[in-house]
Amino acid sequence: MNTTRHNFLKSSAVLGAAAAFPSIVPSTVLGQGGTTLPSNRATIGIIGCGSRSRSCGEYLQGDNAEIVAVCDPFLSRRQTRAKEWNVQDQYADFREVLARKDIDAVHVVTPDHWHVPISLMAARAGKDVYCEKPLGLSIEQNLAARAITEKHNRIFQYGAQQRSMQHLRMGIELVLNGHIGEVKDIYAWAPAGQSGGSTEAQPVPENVDYDLWLGPAPKAPFSEERTSNRGSWYIYD
């Protein structure tokens, strides 16, 4: 048989694969024993590694998803989550996560001012998105998030998941169908806020990309409270 370049490359690939294939293959690789094939698992990048991101560890409780990358402008924060979840790939810049073709979806756990901008860029990059609440800083941002995710045919959800809980959906149906009679009063409840704290400017710590943390928010001096939950009383957007 005449050996062509195509046949050579084809046969070499087959032989190379056979030589590299392990003699004992774990059943998890083949999807046996009730496990999920690696190719059927959703690969997720976590963007934002502050205190709220602790809940993202729930992805590890099943076998249909895996966290493959963590991202945060604070080196210490992304290192903490990477160690906690046994994730190898760490990034300061979320754009590096969005550029990866092997990531199916991202979970946006950043400060509020980054929620919609990152969600829009993720949808344009072909990623599905789960975004923590609040969604946007304005109605216009919220409408843009909906329009872009629909345009790119992406799955999008933000963290108002209680609206999807069965007992709340049942309550909505009861009200809409008139089963409780005429609704005359509506009472809204919100958790108490907090006030106080220091506004004194501090030097930006090493291994913190503060400009990236600020992003689209107005320029403001660094302080530890501004960049942590203790500074939730700040208004900087």
Automatic annotation (TrEMBL):
Superkingdom in the source lineage: Bacteria
Domain Gfo/Idh/MocA-like oxidoreductase N-terminal: from-to ranges: 44-159
Coiled coil feature spans: none
SUPFAM superfamilies the record matches: NAD(P)-binding Rossmann-fold domains
Protein name in the entry: Scyllo-inositol 2-dehydrogenase (NAD(+))
Domain Gfo/Idh/MocA-like oxidoreductase bacterial type C-terminal stretches: 197-233
UniProt-recorded Gene Ontology molecular function terms: nucleotide binding
